[in-house]
Amino acid sequence: MSGQELAGYASALLVGLVIGLAGGGGSILTVPIFVYVFGIPTVLATTYSLFVVGATSLVGSIHHIWQKRVDMRVTAAFALPSFVSIYLSRRFLVPALPDPLLQINDFVLPKSKAILYFFAVVMLLAARAMIRSTRPEQGEAADGKPRYLSLSLDGLAVGLLTGTIGAGGGFLIVPMLVLLAGLPIHRAVATSILIIAINSFVGFAGDIHHTDLDWNFLLPFTGLSIIGIFAGMYFSRFVAPDRLKKGFGWFVLIVACYMILKELSTV
């Protein structure tokens, strides 16, 4: 095993650590790791990301459910609409995208590059939100009553994002649970982890019909990520969430810029 591969497997611990600490962000790391460290094709990397993030989040959510930190009604309102958009996008939309996605004279944009560019843009937006964020106020749910219709519509949108690029959308879900459901930040993080688990597995289920998976690679990587989420949940008791998110936001910004520059250099 090369040093680069060892670094890739070690980074699996970081994926779980981030999910445990912040309630999301793991998929922002997994896709670049799979593509640039392990050389996995982009579409397959998004499939692997869904499984790793889903399995890791599921383990973390079991702990949070046991501690009664998860709001199940809010989870249902957000996650159920996501089922439709995630499954349909993974089952039909992504496979149906033409390759190349765009061709104008001598300019050719392959599907794999288009997905990576879209992913990098999402990373930039996520980084901006995390760097600038303070704890969100109660927003529409200042009275403590969840806005279930708004949650459902947001779930549809996040589901489309998850299905298209293999991202769980935790950086979007957590503030929405605070703003639209009136959840305290610690309950929003715990509920977000369960929603990410559900969304990711639904998206993964849409892929297994037409994808060959390397379980000898995928399962060890996932196991290390699960170890990382236990560490993240432990350290979350000592690390200030706002400071963590800003630090992670700068890291995501650097990775996004690297992805864009690398892809542009190969045009």
UniProtKB/TrEMBL annotation:
<feature type="transmembrane region" description="Helical">
    <location>
        <begin position="114"/>
        <end position="131"/>
    </location>
</feature>
<feature type="transmembrane region" description="Helical">
    <location>
        <begin position="217"/>
        <end position="235"/>
    </location>
</feature>
<keyword id="KW-0812">Transmembrane</keyword>
<protein>
    <recommendedName>
        <fullName>Probable membrane transporter protein</fullName>
    </recommendedName>
</protein>
<feature type="transmembrane region" description="Helical">
    <location>
        <begin position="247"/>
        <end position="264"/>
    </location>
</feature>
<feature type="transmembrane region" description="Helical">
    <location>
        <begin position="151"/>
        <end position="179"/>
    </location>
</feature>
<keyword id="KW-1003">Cell membrane</keyword>
<dbReference type="InterPro" id="IPR002781">
    <property type="entry name" value="TM_pro_TauE-like"/>
</dbReference>
<keyword id="KW-0472">Membrane</keyword>
<dbReference type="Pfam" id="PF01925">
    <property type="entry name" value="TauE"/>
</dbReference>
<keyword id="KW-1133">Transmembrane helix</keyword>
<feature type="transmembrane region" description="Helical">
    <location>
        <begin position="43"/>
        <end position="62"/>
    </location>
</feature>
<feature type="transmembrane region" description="Helical">
    <location>
        <begin position="185"/>
        <end position="205"/>
    </location>
</feature>
<dbReference type="InterPro" id="IPR051598">
    <property type="entry name" value="TSUP/Inactive_protease-like"/>
</dbReference>
<comment type="similarity">
    <text>Belongs to the 4-toluene sulfonate uptake permease (TSUP) (TC 2.A.102) family.</text>
</comment>
<feature type="transmembrane region" description="Helical">
    <location>
        <begin position="12"/>
        <end position="37"/>
    </location>
</feature>
